[in-house]
Amino acid sequence: MFRGLFLLSFIFWFNNINFSQTLRCGSNPTPSQIPNQSELEAFTQKWISENEFTLQNRSIITIPVVVHVVWNQTVQNISTEQIQSQIELLNKDFRALNTDLSTVPAEFQNTIADIEIEFCLAKVDPNGEPTNGITRTFTQAPAILGSTSIHYNSEGGSDAWDSSKYLNIWVANSNSIAGFGSFPGEDIPEEDGIEINYQNFGNILVEPPYHLGRTTTHEIGHYLNLCHVWTNDCEDDKVLDTPISSQSYLGKCPVHPSVSCGSNDMFMNFMYWTNDACMAMFTKGQKMRILATLNGPRAGLLTSNGCIEVGTNQFEKELNLTVFPNPSLGILNLNFGNKTDLSLLRFELIHKNGFKTHPNINSSLSTNYFDLSHLPNGIYFLKVSQKDQMFVKKIILAK
Ligand SMILES: [Zn+2]
Predict the structure, then answer these.
(1) Strand 61-71 with 167-172, pairing
(2) SS3 of 267, please?
(3) Rounded to the nearest whole angstrom, what is the distance from the C-alpha of residue 57 to the centroid of ligand 1?
(4) Centroid of ligand 1 to alpha carbon of 223 (angstroms)
(5) Which domains does the chain have, with CATH numbers?
(6) Model-level pTM?
(7) How far apart are CA 264 and CA 117, in angstroms?
(8) Would you call 346 helix, strand, or coil by DSSP?
């Protein structure tokens, strides 16, 4: 229901612009449209104030993605290569590896953030079966993007996968809009995710000005609780290092400096409506909002096994490691089912909030163990690696 409201308010908002132009994004909810929005914002600000010291050098978070291609014309049934191109572009934009970062003006260079998030096409589906992370559905509807029907098999769309464990991306045809994104807390779970016009997904067979995958980068920004940088009345986006602005730069590629609300606009931020070729960065302040979201309303993504290949991790099979007891009171025993040279193994213990430590392995006559009694209680991930092979086990510390 919210989607329809957003679209109507959006069209009303922009009734002065040229409608032959594709609208950049249909996500622009007011706080009253998000249940519990004030509680969520209070949580976000509290988390940021308590975790500012953990901004850099965190463990990379990998978010499992399922792409639902919902097509009416053959051309809309986009290729797997086009889908993969979008994942690769996301993994550049969210890791500050996009080459156009060099175009960011000097005054904003210090605010550029590596968000330390990557995306994978899901390798295991909600039933535990192997998958390529893509569903394909024929629909009778010529332009289903933006309709609630896109989220339901029974209405000619495609059912979401568990949206607490997967980022659902629906790709379909729209006659007017490039993309939509759900804010955390906005939607019912079956409709949570983002929607992208097939003509703006990836960088294969797509046309300017939205041809570099940045519609998806922008909508995932909303999905992770980022607002647009600008508002029409110079309100704040609740991010300290993005200058207040009144310009969306829809369909534009501005020249720096462009001034509004008394300061130079960061129009090259992904959360503007600038053309794809003219946006390049997230900020450190935006990164903190994203991390708060991943430790709050979207925390389920951190414990998803959607990116872990089923039954093909030969290294894990060879070691045959069991850890016990789990939950642990502080001593965590390690039993290697197969004989192994422990000196070749590297252990890393990563807390759900991102901080990491390298536990020392202790050996007694009967067993090997970690003493974790000095660490705070919580959920950890034990990463076991040897050269370029690795696997992860979830550990709960409850002293
Ligand atoms: Zn937007």
Answers:
(1) parallel
(2) coil
(3) 28
(4) 10
(5) 2-303 (3.40.390.10), 314-397 (2.60.40.3080)
(6) 0.77
(7) 28
(8) strand
